[in-house]
Specification:
It contains eight helices and 16 strands. The chain is an alpha+beta fold. The strands form three sheets. Strands 1, 4, 5, 6, 7, 8, 10, 11, 12, 13, 14 and 15 form a twelve-stranded mixed beta sheet that branches. Strands 2-3 form a two-stranded antiparallel ribbon. Strands 9-16 form a two-stranded antiparallel sheet. The longest helix has 12 residues, at 56-67.
């Protein structure tokens, strides 16, 4: 299983803090947002590589960071070639670039990447998590389908700004809506997904068949309509870092708990 980290955004809502520096590498205590996530994922036996897809503006910074890491699984940095928020590819196209292969540089040498033919764990790199991704991987193994995460969200206002799923009694996804004005459930979808090898052909052809490009949830929505998927209810919370206020709050709450 490959761990693919979508980190090609420009985090414009954080202003000067991320004007010339990637949000996933901002410090939380002695670690970084991304480092805290990889500390957990690297321990999962199924994972054999971390693939971080970023933009050209931040690729060298990620490369320098990767060279200083000592994870048990190799880190590959992929540059999507974009340099501004206006020219960004979008999260779904970045994922396709990562899985379809290209000539890139990893944390040791230049490599000519082959296309990926493996199960995928796909994660956004701007959350602090209070559970282990091992639980999510185990859930997907038990269901033997591609999977999304979900969590209960009581706020209608917040549900209107995210993906919302309907589930049956066995956590099979019956339907998914992006930013619904009238949510059909309280199950919100965070940006963490498992796409199994058997569904990769669907993933590869999603955009040409009408899937939206901007957000990773666009692909999840597309996949729900084209294959069987299940949703794992998160066993604990997460802290989404989306603004200067939430970043400083994360530093205050969690910066001393490394």
């Amino acid at each position: 299983m490959k761990n693919i980290v979508i980190a090609a955004g420009y985090a414009t809502r954080l202003g000067e803090l991320t004007k010339n520096f990637p949000k996933p590498l901002l410090k939380i205590g002695e670690s970084t947002i991304l480092g805290r996530m990889l500390d957990d994922i690297d321990r999962i036996p199924d994972i054999d590589e971390h693939i971080i897809i970023t933009n050209h503006k931040f690729a060298a910074i990620f490369q320098q960071w990767a060279e200083k890491q000592s994870y048990s699984k190799p880190i590959t940095i992929i540059d999507d070639g974009t340099e501004t928020n206006d020219t960004r590819l979008g999260a779904v196209c970045d994922l396709l670039l990562a899985i379809n292969g290209d000539s890139q540089t990893d944390n040791r040498k230049s490599v000519n990447r082959n296309s990926i033919d493996d199960d995928l764990l796909v994660v956004a790199a701007d959350n602090l998590l209070f559970f282990s991704f091992q639980e999510f991987v185990d859930f997907a193994k038990a269901k033997q389908t591609s999977c999304i995460m979900c969590h209960e969200q009581p706020s209608i206002e917040k549900l209107q700004r995210t993906g919302v799923v309907e589930l049956d009694a066995n956590n099979r996804v019956l339907g998914m809506e992006e930013k619904p004005q009238v949510p059909k459930s309280h199950w919100a979808v965070p940006p963490f997904y498992i796409y199994l090898k058997k569904d990769l052909d669907l993933v590869r052809h999603a955009v040409e068949n009408g899937c939206g490009k901007d957000a990773p949830g666009n692909l999840a929505h597309y996949m729900v309509d084209h294959t069987v998927m299940h949703a794992w209810p998160m066993s604990a919370g997460r802290f989404d870092i989306g603004s200067l206020d939430t970043y400083y709050e994360a530093q205050r709450l969690y910066g001393s708990k490394d």
